[in-house]
Design brief:
Elements lengths: L10 H32 L4 H17 L1 H4 L4 H25 L4 H29 L6 H26 L8 H18 L18 H18 L1 H32 L9 H24 L5 H25 L2 H33 L3 H32 L1 H42 L2
Length: 435
């Protein structure tokens, strides 16, 4: 059995993972359905449904800590799942009461995005408790991360199948059911989620002092542990160019250049490229979750080397290759890009859970999400300017080169640092054995 699947021998892990699978697939259904419904209701204003999510994550992450830090992680996760189900059902109720509106879709999206800032940090803080064996933490991180990557891969397929016999509005009902199932799974396994002091509430000072402490706690923790703090911030910031390259530039390239292969074109071509990225994503996750890296920090940045190279080659292929082989080349570039992501994320999260403990994990991870949301919001705003001035292919190439440059720089820097540390450890060990 691959190491990434070994944690599933534990019944509590099985239960939590099963619930996570249902909610992640439900969230991907919501993403597909909300955009589709918004286009039907509001046309060009549909972009608001996506944009407001970044704002909601920023606000909830920056100012919600004074509330979230007072909650036990099991209660935070279960409560967020219940409220997420309610927000997912809000447009459904409105559809039957007064008709669907863009306002209801925005409120629903804002609620789910804000509650994600409650659930995800709390989940990260419970993993060392759920799997106390540090040797298996990388495996369970890979396993849990795989659920999001698989959902991103199969979500559109599930949506296409459901659309054959279910109205799109009830995709949101399916999302709500997924949240309820996830919440129940967490309730069943709650005794395993509150060890290591996580069952005790965090003491937060009253008033503005407590609010300021909650706001700055994650920042102070990152400053205290500068190495992992730098890695977390780097990862959060690079979500900006990653989002532009994957979610925006590829769609525009296919729309403009219309690559075809074996009869596939237009939307099918876009689905093939995104599917290729998903295959690389899941494959990289299986490897990253199963292998323990001897030089974790420098290996992380090799993931960005692969990702940046893949995105860059995809763009170069558009300029350099004839139309008849363009689509397979774009798929190959996307697959390479997808392969790199997990090689950074899985070891990064594992190191974070090793360096920080208890509620501090949630605080640090929440700050990472805040920075990530800000980076994606800014990138989505300035991407339009780059597309207008440089075009979709040049913008794609620029994003790929930025990611590649960070990957190369980070790998060289941390490789030298890890080599020095290994040499120092070897010298110390030799001195201890000298009589």
């Amino acid at each position: 059995m691959l190491a990434i699947f070994r944690p599933l021998k534990d019944r509590a892990v099985q239960i939590v993972w099963s619930g996570l699978c249902t909610s992640t697939i439900g969230e991907d259904l919501f993403r597909v359905a909300s955009v589709w419904l918004a286009v039907e209701v509001a046309g060009n204003m549909a972009g608001l449904v996506t944009g407001v999510q970044y704002v909601a994550m920023l606000v909830a992450g920056l100012f919600g800590g004074v509330v979230f830090d007072r909650w036990r992680p099991d209660r935070a996760m279960i409560g967020s799942r219940v409220w997420s189900a309610a927000f997912a059902l809000l447009p459904v109720v409105g559809f039957y009461v007064s008709g669907l509106s863009i306002t209801l879709l925005i409120l629903s999206s804002v609620g789910l995005a804000a509650l994600r800032m409650v659930f995800s940090p709390a989940l990260q803080s419970t993993i060392p408790t759920l799997v106390p064996n540090r040797g298996e933490q990388q495996a369970i991180n890979g396993l849990f991360d795989a659920t999001y990557r698989i959902a991103r891969l199969v979500g559109p397929v599930v949506a296409a199948l459901l659309h054959l016999f279910l109205p799109v509005i009830h995709f949101l009902t399916a999302t709500a059911i997924g949240f309820i199932v996830s919440g129940y799974a967490l309730y069943v396994a709650r005794d395993r989620l509150t060890g290591g002091g996580l069952g005790d509430p965090v003491r937060v000072a009253p008033g503005w002092r407590g609010a300021w402490e909650a706001l700055t706690a994650g920042f102070k923790l990152m400053l205290r542990e500068k190495r992992i703090g730098t890695v977390l911030v780097t990862n959060a910031l690079l979500n900006g160019p990653w989002m532009v390259a994957l979610s925006l530039a590829i769609a525009l390239i296919i729309t403009e250049y219309r690559p075809t292969f074996m009869g596939f074109g237009d939307l099918a071509a876009y689905a093939l490229v995104m599917g290729a990225y998903g295959v690389g994503d899941v494959s990289g996750n299986i490897v990253a979750g199963s292998v323990r890296f001897g030089r974790p920090y420098s290996t992380m940045f090799l993931g960005y080397v692969a990702m940046g190279t893949g995105f860059s080659l995809l763009a170069i292929a558009v300029w350099a290759l004839p139309p008849e082989i363009l689509l397979p080349a774009m798929m190959a570039g996307a697959m390479l890009a997808g392969l790199g992501g997990p090689f950074f994320f899985v070891p990064m999260i594992t190191r974070m859970q090793t360096v920080f403990h208890g509620h501090d994990i949630a605080r640090v991870f929440r700050l990472r999400l805040v920075i990530m949301a800000g980076a994606m919001l800014v990138s989505s705003l300035i991407a339009t300017w780059f597309f207008d001035r440089l075009g979709s292919v040049a913008t794609q190439l620029g994003c790929g080169l930025v990611i590649l440059a960070v990957g190369i720089t980070g790998h060289i820097y941390y490789r030298r640092a890890e080599n020095r540390e290994a040499a120092g450890a070897a010298a110390s060990a030799q001195q201890r054995h000298v009589p």
